[in-house]
Each structure stands twice: as structure tokens, then as C-alpha cells.
Amino acid sequence: MTTNATVFDRIKQDISDNTVVLFMKGTPVFPQCGFSAAVVQILTHLGVKFKGIDVLSDPEIRQGIKEFSSWPTIPQLYVKGEFVGGCDIVREMFEAGELGDFLTEKGVATRA
Amino acid sequence: MAMDAATIERLIRDGLPDAQITIEDLRGDGDHYAAHVVSAAFKGKTRVQQHQMVYQALRGRMGNELHALALQTSAPED
Fold first, then answer.
1. A39 to chain B: which residues are within 8 Å by CB?
2. B1 — pLDDT class (breaks 50, 70, 90)
3. Is the CB of A70 less than 8 angstroms away from the CB of B52?
4. Of B5, B25, B62, B77, which sits with the fewest C-beta atoms within 10 Å of its C-beta?
5. Do the chains contact at B52 and A71, CB–CB below 8 Å?
6. Which tens digits make up the pLDDT trace of B7-57?
7. Do A21 and A78 form a contact (C-beta atoms < 8 A)?
8. Architecture (CATH level 2) of domain A5-105
């Protein structure tokens, strides 16, 4: 399946309109996948405001986001338009205490 | 769809010949793995780039046949 430019435009719009964006399965309140839930939990723990985009409700975005970032899995976290990583990287950064610092550097408010 | 650990290891090694690879079958169901990959090729690369190199070695299987592979990557310490 190839993705048309419109889908990439929508993704670019989403990640430029919102400081922190999580492409995930399900919603922040009802995640439909353990990996998405783990990232929601970490962001919530850090008190980060983010926009969750449910790829299950949009097959074009679900495929498009993988091509956009050359990353085969979901969830995917974006901060200030930059792809930060999937569940493993977010978890590793959080456990190493790097994620909070990274967000602060990017000017994202966290619960200290 | 399941994939065995030896296949995962072989694919990663094809892409990253020097890699030290540790694979754990997390649930014993052949579907949820954790892999730790250490390769000199990761030097100077970001975590995202390191994971992308492993995904590239898996040639499209990640996210398809291979549902869950928790990945940890690092460069060897000198």
C-alpha cells in the first residue's frame, strides 16, 4: 500500500499544531494495546499534556505514520514535530530519567 | 503469527554481522520477544536510528509476522 501526500500533510499538520503528539491504538482514556497504554502512563505520570491520535479509527493514518517515520510500529511519540521513538525508547528514556529533561529542554511543561 | 527466536537472530545478524544478540521469548508463545542488540555500527547513532537499523535487518517483518519485539540497542563499550 502506498500512501498519498495528503496523509503526510495531515500528519505534518498534527505534529506542528500540537507540541506533544502520541499516535496510538485507542485513546488516552481507553488504550487498545499494552504498548500504547505504557506510553500514555509515562506521559501522564510526568504530567505532560499531549494529543492522542487513534490510528485504529483511521487506517490511512495507521499506514501513513509508519511510512512517515520509517518506523514499523505504533505507538509513536512526537515532540515539537520531531519523532522521539516508540514504546521501548520512551520507556528507556523514562527509566534513565532522560525523558523529563528532554521535554523540559523542548519547553514542554512537566510535573517536577 | 509466530516467528522463532533463531530466525530473528539470523535476520538481525545478516544486517549487522558484528552484533551480539540476546533474545528472550517473553511469554513462551513465539510472539512476544525482547532483544538486546549490541553492535559497533550503532556508534554515533541516535536510539531511533539504531532501532531503525534493526528493523531494516528484519526486512518488513516487524509489525507484521513479528508483533512484539521489545528492543534495546547499544554500541559496545571500548
1. none
2. low
3. yes
4. B77
5. yes
6. 999 999 999 999 999 999 988 887 889 999 999 999 999 999 999 999 999
7. yes
8. 3-Layer(aba) Sandwich (3.40)
> Could you report the predicted ipTM of this complex, rounded to two decimals?
0.82
The whole-model pTM stands at 0.90
What is the predicted pLDDT for the residue at A111? Answer: 85
Mutation target among B48, B50, B67, B72 for the A interface, most CBs of A within 10 A? B48
If pLDDT is split at 50, 70 and 90, which confidence band does A17 have? very high
Q: Which of A73, A74, A79, A84 to mutate to test the interface with B (most CBs of B within 10 A)?
A: A73
Report, at the CATH architecture level, how domain B5-74 is classified. 2-Layer Sandwich (3.30)
Inspect the interface and report whether the beta carbons of B48 and A88 lie closer than 8 Å: no
pLDDT (0 to 100) of residue A1: 57
